[in-house]
């Protein structure tokens, strides 16, 4: 039964296969994409609505913060103004019921007028505020009349006791309370205040300063917002301080339990409807602004935009599928022919060609296929010729080894004769040269231990010091584990050679070789105190190291200096691949430092 179903579903036409595949690969992912887009749109709408709510809260917060800053400014001014403080401290020492002489009466009047004038001046720029300076002995200074409110009644307020624990610029913020000023009670039933203490040099309280504004000033920030959300000012104990509805002022925030839930996602439910919740803390007061907006209203415009985008995507997918069907009808015929040509090539016929010259993608593919076959034939010919040249080169290398072997044997004979005559310095020089020569003709040692490489460098430096007027100091600091690492031959010598000839300019100097294992990396550092390079030369050298092996040319010079630093980099890259890295640091007049690293865990 299952085999019959498979036979019916299995298409016999190449064109049918392509169309069916297109339906599976395009229509189904398109439907999935549309559903995913619809699902993700909900979160995007919520985030955008929350962003809009926070933006409006920030605007309201700036206005409210400005109001509170103006109140603090007045309190700060009273605290720090030395002239006012001297007057207040003087009057704080007087007894309220003491008899004042006539000359003192005039002086007190002038001082009172000066304080009152100052209070009036500092409250002119901001919103209207009521300022009360109340001394410990009951004397007071205000910018309102006694008929409005008796300042001594402040001593009876419950929050007044909190001021005894306030120092410096600390303040007690008094949330919304019934308005005490007669002229404001009808139009503004609530007020907001801030209070501070006035202390002498001994930190004893001699007075208080209280700044009060009407609660409706805060409410104006809510009314000026462009949205229709419900805004309120809430204190640290979640008591509503300001609201468009005066009846809610002084009550507790009703949705606190929903907000405190662990899985709260800025959505609260009120009367079976979702509302978007956002809040913004106001610094130094512990209060916060809260916004509650119907979720549907907050996301209406955004939802409309996303619906239009969804519809546009759906239409575009349909159009794209129709166009794709048309293109498939056009390209399937030459594809079948190209498949036949590929089958012929697979059977071994490399002379067959498709000869499809259309200007569409299939035509370009056919042209590329034909070019590939031409290139394959050409590469076969090139490989054949290369093998012939390689055999010739190997034969030439075998012949070239005869001369180095002969020279190596002659040098050993000369060294023995020189040593018999007592010239040990010359014998040592010939011995070092012999060791270096042996390494150059030993083909079996493509990879050697780092210990052998260090010995080669020692002999090389010995030879260079003998031929120079001034010796180079060569210091070696290699860990025991590093000596066991295997590297290609003549990796260190070209770098040391560059340091002696170019860095130290064949003069006295120091070269430090440092090698160790750090974690999974084998690190080699070669540093000299020579002339160094300027920034442009260093940049050119670094660029050269990034070139491909085909573009790196090593000039044939005499001696071992024919292996340049580029050759070292290329051979290490060929041996260790991407696990090898080389960095060159240099500064004019301060020497050059070459750092090579090989990751031991990722070697070829």
From TrEMBL:
GO molecular function, one term: protein histidine kinase activity
Enzyme Commission code(s) on record: 2.7.13.3
InterPro entries, A to Z: Bact_2-comp_sensor_kinase, dCache_1, HAMP_dom, HATPase_C_sf, HATPase_dom, Sig_transdc_His_kin_internal
TM ranges: 18-40, 309-328
Keywords from the UniProt entry: ATP-binding, Cell membrane, Kinase, Membrane, Nucleotide-binding, Phosphoprotein, Transferase, Transmembrane, Transmembrane helix, Two-component regulatory system
SUPFAM superfamilies, per database record: ATPase domain of HSP90 chaperone/DNA topoisomerase II/histidine kinase, HAMP domain-like
Residue span(s) of domain HAMP: 329-381
Subcellular localization: Cell membrane
Broad EC category: transferase
Membrane topology of the entry: Multi-pass membrane protein
Top-rank taxon: Bacteria
Main location class: membrane
UniProt keyword RNA-binding present: no
Name under which the protein is recorded: Sensor histidine kinase
Organism: Metabacillus endolithicus
């Amino acid at each position: 039964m299952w085999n019959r179903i498979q036979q019916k579903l299995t298409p016999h036409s190449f064109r049918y296969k392509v169309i069916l595949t297109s339906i599976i690969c395009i229509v189904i992912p398109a439907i999935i994409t549309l559903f995913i887009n619809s699902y993700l749109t909900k979160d995007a709408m919520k985030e955008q609505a929350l962003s809009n709510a926070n933006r409006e809260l920030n605007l309201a917060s700036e206005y409210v913060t400005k109001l509170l800053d103006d109140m603090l400014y007045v309190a700060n001014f009273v605290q720090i103004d030395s002239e006012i403080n001297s007057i207040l401290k003087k009057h704080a020492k007087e007894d309220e019921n003491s008899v004042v002489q006539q000359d003192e009466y005039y002086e007190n009047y002038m001082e009172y007028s000066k304080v009152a004038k100052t209070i009036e001046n500092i409250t002119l720029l901001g919103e209207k505020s009521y300022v009360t300076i109340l001394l410990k002995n009951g004397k007071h200074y205000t910018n309102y009349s006694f008929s409005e409110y008796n300042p001594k009644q402040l001593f009876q307020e419950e929050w007044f006791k909190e001021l005894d624990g306030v120092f410096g610029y600390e303040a007690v913020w008094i949330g919304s309370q019934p308005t005490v000023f007669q002229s404001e009670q009808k139009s503004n039933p609530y007020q907001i205040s801030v209070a501070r203490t006035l202390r002498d040099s001994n930190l004893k309280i001699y007075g208080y300063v209280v700044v009060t504004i009407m609660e409706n000033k805060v409410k104006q920030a809510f009314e000026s917002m462009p949205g229709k959300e419900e805004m309120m000012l809430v204190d640290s104990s979640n008591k509503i301080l300001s609201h468009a509805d005066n009846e809610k002022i002084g009550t507790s925030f009703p949705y606190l339990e929903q907000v405190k839930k662990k899985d709260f996602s800025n959505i609260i439910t009120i009367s079976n409807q979702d509302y978007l919740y956002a809040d913004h803390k106001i610094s130094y007061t512990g209060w916060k602004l809260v916004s509650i907006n119907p979720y549907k209203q907050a996301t209406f415009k955004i939802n409309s935009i996303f619906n239009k985008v969804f519809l546009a995507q759906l239409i575009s997918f349909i159009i794209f599928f129709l166009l794709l069907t048309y293109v498939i009808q056009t390209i399937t015929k030459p594809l079948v022919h190209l498949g036949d040509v590929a089958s012929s090539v697979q059977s071994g016929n490399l002379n067959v060609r498709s000869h499809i010259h259309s200007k569409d993608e299939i035509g370009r593919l056919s042209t590329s296929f034909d070019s590939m076959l031409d290139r394959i034939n050409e590469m076969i010919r090139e490989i054949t010729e290369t093998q012939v040249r390689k055999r010739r080169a190997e034969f030439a290398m075998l012949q070239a080894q005869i001369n180095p072997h002969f020279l190596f044997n002659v040098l050993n004979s000369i060294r023995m004769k020189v040593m018999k005559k007592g010239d040990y310095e010359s014998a040592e020089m010939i011995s070092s040269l012999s060791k270096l020569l042996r390494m150059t003709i030993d083909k079996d040692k493509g990879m050697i231990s780092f210990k052998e490489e260090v010995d080669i460098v020692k002999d090389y430096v010995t030879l260079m010091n003998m031929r120079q007027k001034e010796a180079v100091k060569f210091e070696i600091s290699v860990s025991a584990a590093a000596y066991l690492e295997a590297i290609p031959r003549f990796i260190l010598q070209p770098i040391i050679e560059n340091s002696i000839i170019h860095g130290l300019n064949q003069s006295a100097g120091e070269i430090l070789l440092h090698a160790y294992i750090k974690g999974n990396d084998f690190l080699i550092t070669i540093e000299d105190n020579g002339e160094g390079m300027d920034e442009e030369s260093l940049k050119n050298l670094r660029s050269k190291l990034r070139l491909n092996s085909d573009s790196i040319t090593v000039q044939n010079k005499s001696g071992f200096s024919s292996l340049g630093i580029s050759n070292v980099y290329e051979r290490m890259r060929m041996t260790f691949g991407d696990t090898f890295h080389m960095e060159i640091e240099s500064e004019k007049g301060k020497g050059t430092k070459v750092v090579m690293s090989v990751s031991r865990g990722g070697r070829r």
